[in-house]
Amino acid sequence: MCLGMATSVLGQVYEKYTAPEGYPDWVAVRPVDPETLVPTKVVGPGDQWSKVIAEAQPGDVIALEDGVYEGSLAVYDRAAPSAPVTVMALHSRKAVLDAEGGDPILSTYPHTVPASYWRFIGLCLVNADKRNAEFANLRHVTFQDCEFANTQKRQGLLVESGEGLVVSGCYFHHNAYGLQVGVKDQSGVKGVLIENCVFDSNAGKDLSNADGVGVENAVLTRDVLIRDCVSTRHSDAGFDVKPEALILRCLSRQNSGPGFKIWRSVEMRNCLAYSNREEQIELAGATLSTYRRILGCTVVAPGSTAIAVKNLGSFAMRNTIVDGRVEVATEGALDVDYCLFTQAPGPWQGQHSIVGNPMFVDPANGGYHLRQGSAAIGIGEYLPLLSPDLELKVRRQPFCAGCYDRGVEAGRH
Fold this sequence. Notes:
1% helix
């Protein structure tokens, strides 16, 4: 339900969404259309690209021609709210910024002033020793349609601190660690949007806890929205989220750790988790004031632990398919109903929940749509906030349990 309220918390125009009473408000940002941007300068690989960008003025749109760019860039505080500096590839991901095994390609170091109102669009950042991009004291910075690949020891992108981070339509692969926002026990970021991103095969040899997405610092990082992302084949969790957050329509599969590791008050809607080596969803590290909600999700771990609810904090679940065990070890309140379980979880399962066969279309190949006759069809509670489903299809009434509306569409996700 959109109220259309304009604000500048994340440095771009967005619409503020509200949910029924008792749920938090969150924000959504519209990405920039590169076709609407007119370059003020066009730079080639041999044109001292970093010097041109470092001298950019508010409102400049600097376009990089196809090719490989060597060296690095320290980002200064040169832009303004109404006139951001944009650095974009003329052709998506054809401008390759190559660190050649050295320092970060983009960074705010050693400058202590913030990097404010910058947009990086369509760039490919590769081959840094530790991080392809590293920002501290960031203010309203967007990474859109960028590729971060082949860091040897650390993150593809690390944002330590600041306000107003947008990571949209980016591809993180073959880094030691994918994307990290905030630093444990040190710093955080206020106002974070991560959307339409793919995180694949970030599994550092020297890092046992290499996640696809890691959002740190439950105290200093807040207002986090993660939506429409896929995280797969990492050496630890697909998503490791410590602060309060809303996670919408995300998929986590084939990770060596949990699919989703949630630490504080997080709500998950229309998510899918399967084939992760540890729990598909682990709810850990909570306090008594923490809420954890799983709404309209499909969680698959036949014969093993699908969901582990640990420590303190309340736990609510609606309209969810759980194929596997649910382990509950919490002193907080439990509120579970309108779910489908493949094995009876316990007396707390709810009056309207049932035990039955979800009849997935092709589970052996990642196809978790519902066949005709599935026990999940039509058993869900009517919750408008769950429409559209994982594939952005409008849910029909009566609602089904799980991340998909009824249908026999095959396909792997």
